[in-house]
Amino acid sequence: MEEAGRVPAAVAWGLLAAWAVHDAEELATMARWTRTARPRLERRLPQVPWERLELSQQHVNVAIGLMGGVVAAASAMGARTGGRSAVFQAALAGFGVHGATHLAQAALARGYTPGLVTAPVVVIPYSLWAWRRLRRAGVPAQRPGPAVAAFPLVLAGVHALAHALTTRRRTPGPPPPA
Questions:
Q1: Of the four listed, 47, 59, 134, 167, which is most buried by Cβ atoms within 10 Å?
Q2: Number of domains composing the chain
């Protein structure tokens, strides 16, 4: 049994470790998957703007790096506060929900989607284990609603910033010769 009020820092740093394993799978598969799955998904779900969801490897690399910074900061806050940080708990809740969304995405796509392999064997088990450790130590859980609501906003912000950093902007040059 956990000593009351004590949560090992490994619980918080485990978020970063589990995220790294999970996102290594996404890093290796996401760009290629969005290209190759697009024709099949366009036929199955024509209402989705698939052309806007296709990601280059450069975009994936930058987005995963940016999210890594977010997860590292949340893990550091969790380690510093013994798991009491609202930011850490929000990231932990978001990570667990993220794992479940991978399962739903694969069911909807009727096949593999990036992150599917590690979601049920790393993401969801780590999240459940970490919440159990926090509960056993008597760490009060923050309300999950704001965390769940914030997760898509953080994800969208990371992808928007990655898009801005990886998209070449056309700068107006001199007019063509007459």
A1: 134
A2: 1
